[in-house]
Amino acid sequence: MPKTAFITGITGQDGSYLAELLLVKGYTVYGLIRRCSTFNTDRIEHLYQDPHDPNYRLRLMYGDLSDASRLAGLIAQIKPDEIYNLGAQTHVKVSFEQPVLTGDVDAIGAMRMLEAVRQSGRKVRYYQAGSSEMFGNAPAPQNEETAFEPASPYAAAKLYAHWVTKNYREAYGIYAVNGILFNHESPRRGATFVTRKITRAVARIKLGKQKKLFLGNLEAKRDWGYAPDFVEGMWRMLQAREPGDYVLATGESHSVREFCELAFSRVGLNYKKHVEQSERHMRPMDVDYLRGDASRARKVLGWKPKVKFEKLVEIMVDADLVMAKEGREDFRADSGIFG
Length: 339
Ligand code: NAP
Ligand code: G4F
Description:
- The structure is a single chain.
- The protein is α/β, with parallel strands linked by helices.
- It has a domain at 4-181: NAD(P)-binding Rossmann-like Domain (Rossmann fold), CATH 3.40.50.
- Helix content is 39%, strand content 15%.
- The strands form four sheets. Strands 3-2-1-4-5-6-11 form a seven-stranded parallel β-sheet, sandwiched between helices. A two-stranded parallel ribbon has the order 7-10.
- Strand 1, helix 1 and strand 2 (28-33) form a beta-alpha-beta unit.
- The longest helix has 22 residues, at 99-120.
- The relative contact order is 0.13.
- The site of ligand G4F has 22 residues, from helix 6.
């Protein structure tokens, strides 16, 4: 029987790749979108289907993770087999500026989803998008047994969502899983995250459209993977016999400085001539070193990332060069004033 999935955060990086994957697998995909005064559906534009077509399988519904009654109504209407709760305020630095909103959407939003599932009485498989940020500065490599040390309002909100997902699994027998995902990137990554901020700038500097790139902490290390590999892992978690929690990571860690070095050298430039550090992009507290151990996902789910760090940098720089040449950058601000 073809399955039905409901994705919150479908307009985001991961939501768009996951929607693609599930449509290829024959699912009918419902996606939660927020009403905005401008279009926010760029990342799923290529998947759009005419709703007048009786067989259309990508169905977009207005809603918001802050609106419990709408979420319950949608779950009753859609009757999903699988739910992927990817919607969130996802920027760690912004979470220091908007901690209450971040808690409402990322923590209580997950609770609203789980309550809607519980009250529906339906047998639904639920995926919660957890983050390696929940480990904070706990020693690497981090895996499912590592004690959490959240170091931002974002991480604390995600940790609340993590624990209630586990609690609903144990208390009510709901098939609910936590993915603890390390950073994953792509040409669809939001332009205010450091990788995309760098690759956009590399392309624009190469083409003479930008002079400098202002960044914060260059020594922070992250375990960066490729988003399409990671959404495949999310899907695998909901196909397993038993629900559980899984780390997804590449097992390699690199600094922001190394990312710059490689990205600028891809177009024949030296990052030292173009990158400047700025207080503006420093966080009140940062996570220094993340490197994940995904052996459990490998063993139980057969999951393994395909794209490595060097290839990821190439994919992102090359895609941004094409966009910048065609003048299709999503916004034009020089040194990433928002990032
Ligand atoms: P993203 O590109 O920033 O997308 C976030 C999505 O959440 C967007 O669709 C956004 O909608 C939606 N959203 C924001 N506030 C919402 C609200 N109040 N109600 C409903 N939807 C809302 O994030 P991503 O990189 O795809 O990440 C997907 C999920 O994985 C997130 O939960 C993130 O925290 C988690 N995660 C990501 C990573 C990573 O490295 N990418 C790692 C670990 C965990 P708009 O388009 O309308 O803004
Ligand atoms: O790219 P980032 O903003 O990602 P961060 O904070 O690791 O969070 C991302 O990954 C998490 C998974 O671990 C997700 F849960 C979360 O939703 C998000 O997707 O920053 C990475 C590192 C940080 O140490 C930051 O301080 O890069 C450093 N950095 C240095 N200069 C910068 C900048 N980050 C940003 N965004 N902008 C800068 O100018």
